[in-house]
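Aim 2 progress update. The chain analyzed this quarter is reproduced below.
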Amino acid sequence: MARMKFLCDAERCIECNACVTACKNENEVPWGVNRRRVVTLNDGEPDEKSISVACMHCTDAPCAAVCPVDCFYTTDDGVVLHDKDQCIGCGYCFYACPFGAPQYSQQSAFGVRGKMDKCTFCAGGPEADGSPEEHEKYGSNRIAEGKLPLCAEMCSTKALLAGDGDILADIYRERVVMRGGRPQTWGWGKAYGEGFQMRERQRASEDAS
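Predicted structure tokens:
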């Protein structure tokens, strides 16, 4: 079964923040909370890069590992969601997440900030698909409608992609080949190094025969 993932191509992101706006409008998140944000590195420099960041729906999610009430769960599609009825607002997930995805929905004294809020991959929550209760707590459930997250669909340069992780990897690999080189990305060698080249050579020899 497909595992849903996000991928942001830093070579294509133009820091327009359309993904941020689309997410806020579609899910009606509370004021002061951004489920998605655009981070710019080396701002104003020749090698400036921007990347859209949200919950990456990790295969082995650290937020789920530290939650004392086990309110996080992973769907069959690999989307990491949480049950706000179980959440106690302790904030452990906020500190565990390397992307800063879980956030408090209110800016107030610790202990009265309410439940945690995070990107849902536009997959809603544990309530019935498309119900008013689901929309009020978690926002839109576009996945149940057969659609992708709106942030990715609104990206004008297709820097932000969402969908089957294997397909996204193929798309990104093709882009890099078209650019005539490989990015200095951590993990690239492991994912597309000697093992990948060997598989490509085997595939080419099979096609030739």
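The chain has one domain: 4-208. The helical segments are 18-27, 62-66, 92-96, 132-138, 150-153, 165-179, 188-192, 194-208. These observations will guide the mutagenesis experiments scheduled for the next reporting period.
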